[in-house]
Design goal:
The complex is a heterodimer of chains A (150) and B (144). Chain A has 150 residues and is α+β, with helices and mostly antiparallel strands. Chain A has helices spanning 23-33, 38-41, 43-48, 71-78; strands at 17-20, 85-94, 103-118, 121-134, 137-149. The longest helix of chain A is centred in the first third of the chain and has 11 residues, at 23-33. Chain A starts with 16 loop residues before the first strand and ends with a strand. The mean pLDDT of chain A is 94. Chain B is built from 3 helices and 5 strands. Chain B has helices at 27-37, 47-52, 62-77, and strands at residues 20-22, 82-89, 99-111, 114-124, 130-140. In chain B, strands 1-3-4-5-2 form a 5-stranded antiparallel β-sheet, covered by helices on one side. Classes of the chains: A alpha+beta (150), B alpha+beta (144). The interface between A and B is large, with 38 and 43 residues.
């Protein structure tokens, strides 16, 4: 079991990756939450809307994963493994809704790593930020805090 | 076609979101959410793995609870109105838990015809313990 977390990853930039949003993925995601809003599910409602198509629920960008990234390797670099990590915090900032057929570029980086001792013992915190752009436009930003049980 | 579920003028500080009740949580929903989100951490699927990891058994993805909170926001403000939602995962959601999402307006502002409403948002379990706490910003249309 590691005693400390590797603060050397601060500033690490992950390779940028592109995600093309599939229509069915938006609907699958909304249904998995049980969010049956027609603006997420009904193509005709979407087509008639101000966005011209369905829109994704606010947390949909969590599906934007880099399939070529070895997450377990990143956890090893931190000095931990999947059984020791918890999702501590998450934020989505959206300048406009995400939509099907669009291709977004995601650029993630580690903005901070720190340790604190809480009531359940020493914990590491890894803060990551991912910018989501379409062309030159910043569409949104995801921020996450991963908690590592040390 | 612009649509509105609520207009900026009709919102006051202190207003509460209609509570959104989700659950009782079932394993099948966690499995479904894993598939939809791509988060296949076995800690949400495999009870033995979760116990061996010292978590006392499987628990829901924090992101699923966050999805519930986001739904409470869009049910109230309308789809496409959420500009920002940020949460802290305060306690684990277990199988059979009932999660109730709530929110309260804490401020309003208007600038250049953009009408922003800021809310405290949270979700609690059937014992009234907060499992998610956070803040959200929605942009609402104006009657003007």
């Amino acid at each position: 079991m590691p005693e400390t977390i590797n603060r050397g990853v601060i500033g690490k930039e992950f390779p940028p990756y592109a995600v093309t949003v599939e229509r069915g993925k938006i609907k699958e995601f909304a249904r998995a939450i049980g969010d049956l809003n027609p603006f997420h599910l009904d193509d005709r409602v979407g087509a008639a809307s101000e966005w011209g198509d369905i829109i994704a629920p606010p947390t949909f960008a969590t599906t934007f994963r880099d399939d070529s990234l070895d997450y377990n390797a990143f956890l090893r670099e931190l000095g931990t493994d999947i059984s020791r990590v918890l999702h501590g915090e998450q934020e989505f900032e959206l300048h406009r809704p995400l939509q099907p057929g669009r291709t977004y570029l995601c650029r993630g980086r580690v903005v901070d790593v720190y340790e604190k001792t809480g009531k359940s013992g020493p914990m590491g915190f890894v803060v990551r930020e991912t910018a989501i752009t379409e062309g030159d436009e910043l569409v949104g930003t995801m921020r996450s805090v991963t908690v590592v049980r040390l | 076609m612009k649509y509105a579920k609520v207009y900026a003028e009709d919102v006051n500080v202190g207003d509460e979101l209609p509570p959104l009740v989700k659950g009782p949580m079932q394993q099948i929903q966690l499995t479904r959410y894993a598939g939809a989100s791509g988060d296949f951490n076995p800690i949400h699927q495999d009870d033995e793995f979760a116990k061996a990891a010292g978590m006392g058994g499987v628990f829901a993805h924090g992101m699923l609870s966050m999805g519930f909170v986001a739904q409470a926001l869009t049910d109230w403000a309308g789809a496409g109105r959420v500009r920002k939602v940020g949460v802290r995962f305060a306690a684990l959601v277990r199988l059979k838990d009932v999660v109730t999402c709530r929110g309260r307006v804490v401020s309003k502002s208007s600038k250049d015809d953009v009408h922003l409403v800021e809310l405290d948002v949270w979700a609690e379990n059937q014992r009234g313990e907060k499992v998610v706490t956070g803040r959200a910003t929605v942009a609402l249309p104006s009657r003007g």
